[in-house]
Amino acid sequence: MSTEPTLWNTVDHYFTDLLTPADAALTTALQDSEAAGLPAIAVAPNQGKLLHLLAQLQGAHRILEIGTLGGYSTIWLARALPTDGHLITLEYKPEHAEVARANLARAGLDKITEVRTGPALTSLAALHDENPAPFDLVFIDADKANNANYLEWSLRLTRPGSLIIIDNVVRGGAVTDATSDDPSVRGTRAALDLIATHPKLDGTAVQTVGTKGYDGFALARVLD
Ligand code: SAH
Ligand code: DHB
Ligand code: MG
């Protein structure tokens, strides 16, 4: 096992340098996030590009993100939107939201993005009360304990054909432990159970390796 992470990093850097070349807005977003003391847990560049491509394939006009951090994944997602598109991203910590707003403005995306501060469960209830047009894509990437709750809210805020993506579903492998008392594992397992059993969801989960280590994501399509 010991040499594998090095190999994952080498291959990830090869893919990233070749296919997602450096970009001023994205690079500065990460630099300013680090300078502001935010944890370095944004999606990797090639994962961000995957989110971007999925949003484009979705023909997304409206995107919802739960868990903003410094807005790195937000930039990748929002860049897939048409000029009349809209992205709402939910962030608990005001200091993260502030960094994200500056990063989105620098990327020229402030007109089509909105960072809402507060606990996402509260923001989601408020958003639902606004009776918004359905979101075409939801990216769930906040506190993992609430993954199933976020998925339930996502079902109320989407349409048949919408795509829901959940980040970080591997939990170092602990996701297989049905007896775990880790809230992140329990929340993630509950979300995966919903994908497996909910009549309006069809999905899968995929393990990943790379510069972020060993992890994975779940994808679910909303059905009629
Ligand atoms: N999507 C980002 C990474 C998000 S990290 C990217 O890839 O670039 C997870 C974020 O979720 C953190 O900023 C954290 O503050 C936020 N968060 C944690 N609990 C939350 C909650 N209950 N409601 C909203 N945001 C929350
Ligand atoms: C953590 C959160 C994330 O969203 C991620 O992609 C990696 C790590 C964390 O809370 O440690
Ligand atoms: Mg994540």
TrEMBL record:
Lineage start: Bacteria, Bacillati, Actinomycetota, Actinomycetes, Kitasatosporales
Pfam families documented for this protein: Methyltransf_3
Species of provenance: Streptomyces alboflavus
Example GO biological process: methylation
One Gene Ontology molecular-function label: O-methyltransferase activity
Keyword entries, A-Z: Methyltransferase, S-adenosyl-L-methionine, Transferase
Superkingdom, natural source: Bacteria
TM annotation in the entry: none
Annotated signal peptide: none
Name of this chain's protein: Methyltransferase
